[in-house]
Amino acid sequence: MADKKKPNDNQPPSLFDNLDLFAAKPEGGAGKAGKDNGQGTADSGSTSQTTQTTQTSQTFQTSQTPPATLPPAGLTGTGPMQALYDFNFRQYSAYVICSRAIPAVEDGLKPVQRRIMHSLWEKDDGRYTKVANIVGHAMQYHPHGDASIGDAICVLANKLWGEGRGYLIDGQGNYGSLYTGMPHAATRYIECRLTDLARKEVFNRKTTTFVPNYDGRKEEPVYLPAKIPLLLMLGADGIAVGLSTAILPHNFIELLEAEIAILQKKPFAVYPDFQLGGVMDVSDYQDGLGKVKVRAVIEPQDKNRLVITQLPWGETTDSLAESIEDAIKKKKVPVRHLNDLTSETVRIELELQAGANPEKTITALYAFTNCEKSLTSRPIVLDGGRPKLMRVSEILKKNVERLTELTKREQEIRLAELDDLFHARTLDRIFIEERIYKRIEQEKTMEGILATVKEGFRPFRGELRRDVTNEDVERLLKIPIRRISQFDIDKNRDEIKAIEKEEGEVKDNLAHLRAFVVKYLKGLIREYAKKYPRCTQIAKGAFKQVDVRAITASELTVRWDKENGYVGSGLRGGDEVFKCSSLDELILVWKDGRFKKVQPEDKIFVDKNLLAILRYNQEKDRDTRTFTCIYEESGYGFSYIKRFTFGGLIRNKEYRLAPEKPKSKIILFTEGCGETLYVKYKPAKGQKIHQQFFRPTDPVARVSRETGQSEKKPVVEVRTAGAKGKQLTTKPIARASFTKGSWWDDKEAPSKGVLD
To answer: What is the CATH number of the domain that holds 497?
Structure first.
């Protein structure tokens, strides 16, 4: 047996250091491994890394020689590899969720974004700095490569609004284009700096908690003390392990107004706002748990030309133009030519075909291209370090709570600073005015000096708010002679009055904290309302549902060339069967009982045994359209009848209405079912009945298998297309129809056939 490895308290176990675990056996033999005591692997939420590692190390012994076959423990999920896998996977997934992909509700940022903002703040001097320099500085805090940091900076810098003004980062140079999708330049060629909004509202060292960075050399903030709702302002997308987040961006000013409504306990509603503009349907937003539909802005320039001036979120001019050109090739939109004239603003011109209706063309563009998109919102955030699905209103209320907390802390810190400043100015006045500094001229030791100065302040203890400390004395002793000689008592007293006035204001702010926060938010609105207007129009109601099939109902003409055995929309000869949409599908039925679903094509070979062609919309018709079929089974030649629906079919897969036998054939195939079925038999020696009629829809009493109750049901019930059917007759059938033909003899005495 190999010696047990002592667990490292700092690092989790590694598969590469413990390869012999592949051959591990539990203590006490392999037979015990197959027994499940109900405990399973270590609990993920209650034990520490060290405890888990120790348990794994103490429970299992390893073998130097791998066995020929895996022990039962490796198959039942109770072996050491299972425990090791669970432990490492939990660590990995927690790392991706908490340290990479999901933003925190506290400041609205992902870790890399937080580190970038912290680096920009540390290097901020009001001037532009090379992005490559910021990347290098951020790598002190971020344990990843420079490329990912550079891309994250460009993403933040492209959170623009209105006329290209950024929220947090002011960029200079080629940061790419949201309109065209053009990538940004190399980080050594572009520069950036913090915006005024970021400097004022995102940073405050006094209210920031710092922790050591990944290598312990520096400190980084746990969360930035952002007083603005960054998470909903910026939006976020992230794919983690087992979950993903999709938070749509919202308008800054509208978020501030909603926060005021929360503080004033008034109703509110906020909806997304996208930098690219467009028109938005918010009828299914569901407070962030639903989706929105976004459309491009398409305007008729003249009767033969349309212009796209705004894009739906997530599209570029290139991707949108590609989707339109694809629709043109498929003849779904009557557009002759497309010109992309986008530069600083979006402009895509569409030249229409002669006689095309502009309004109908716009409808077709929304139906068949990416001019209309559906965006799903799923706001998963880290709340206290744990992933949580939250509504937009809940996130905003969390932001208000944090804003109130930060404001309170700032005011409390300021109050303490003013108290210290009052104490210092009062000490300065007494120290100089009463010439206490003269009393220390004869003192030879530091202890004597401290005692003399403190004794000098004893008569003035009533003017002070606290006792004089050694630190106070040391500060007083450092006052320069010039300042003592030029000391202005009146100015000092004015300063103290100003301090007392500000203290009163701060105390009033703390006493009426909610009103103070509302005042603060209203100040932000006044300052930034014109800078960050709403870009996306909110539709007055839900978008009118575009009936795509109605638009393309007569798009294709399906023909059937019976002579050559072809079906298709591109045939020149043959008989016209019907007109259909390219979104429809066809069901082909053959005389031998075969059928399959196909997509309309220009030319399909079907041979000369094709019996019927149906236009089929699986989504709408699978459970609503019923058919009737009579088929003759080879062998004894018995005939069967069945009513059925085609249901869900796989395209181009062959199915059967009749059993797959050499001489099976379809006698009758029709949609629906008549009340009376007329059947003419083939003449035979000694035959007494030559024709009969049947009532397949007549109700008969049957006992329900589910309820055990007797209920009325048709003789021939509707089943699936592959069902066997009900025996109709044992005689060979010559003709069958739901209508009387010339072959039916009314003079012959009617004979009703029995189906039940």
So the answer is: 1.10.268.10
The answer to whether the beta carbons of residues 387 and 100 sit under 8 Å apart is: no
- Long-range CB contacts (within 8 A, 24+) of 695-699: 695/752, 695/755, 696/628, 696/641, 696/643, 696/755, 697/673
Q: pTM for the whole thing?
A: 0.71
Question: How confident is residue 3, by pLDDT bands cut at 50, 70 and 90?
Answer: very low
> Other C-beta atoms within 10 Å of 457: how many?
21
> pLDDT tens digits, residue range 250-260?
999 999 999 99
How many domains, the chain?
5
With respect to residue 108, please indicate whether it lies within any of the assigned structural domains: yes
User: Do residue 519 and residue 470 come from a single domain?
Assistant: yes
The domain boundary residue, chosen from 180, 199, 226? 226
Residues 89 and 107 in one domain: no
What are the catalytic residues? 189
Is residue 57 within 8 Å of residue 8, measured between CB atoms? no
**What is the distance, to the nearest Å, from the Cα of residue 633 to the centroid of all Cα atoms in its chain?**
54
Domain extent, residue 366, equals 297-370
**Are 164 and 217 contained in the same domain?**
yes
CA angle 171, 109, 296 (to 5 degrees): 65
Is 746 contained in some domain? no
Q: Is the CB of residue 386 less than 8 Å from the CB of residue 467?
A: no
Task: Express each pLDDT in 708-743 by its tens digit.
Answer: 778 888 999 999 999 988 999 988 999 999 999 889
Mean pLDDT, residues 476-490:
87
In 10 A of CB 314, how many CB atoms? 13
Q: How far apart are CA 332 and CA 335, in angstroms?
A: 9
